[in-house]
Design brief:
With 91 residues, this protein is mainly alpha-helical. The chain has helices at 3-10, 14-22, 31-38, 42-46, 62-90.
């Protein structure tokens, strides 16, 4: 899926998609839509196990926990986009 196709599906600009890939984190309201557009689960996209009870929560301040989750989300997002691009190239 190209940036343009994803942008059209999510009704955002191509530059928004590009920013998500490079540095910014998508607004939470887009997570489910991104997962659906990329045909992956929200859990795979965010890197959070489906059984969140198995996640060890360490005593860190809220902002640090959010930053860790957002970084994980971006890494997962980047990997999914790369995988999709490789699949397109191989087709």
């Amino acid at each position: 899926m190209s940036q343009e196709e994803l942008a059209l599906e999510l009704e955002v600009t191509i530059s928004t998609i590009s920013n998500w890939e490079r540095k910014d984190v998508p607004d939470g309201r887009y997570i489910k839509s991104i997962a659906e557009a990329l045909d992956v689960s929200v859990h795979k996209l965010t890197g959070v196990p489906s059984n969140d009870l198995s996640v060890e929560v360490k005593s860190k301040d809220t902002y640090e926990e959010e930053n860790i989750l957002l970084q994980s989300l971006m890494e997962s997002f980047d990997q999914i986009v790369q995988d999709k691009e490789k699949n397109i190239e191989n087709d």
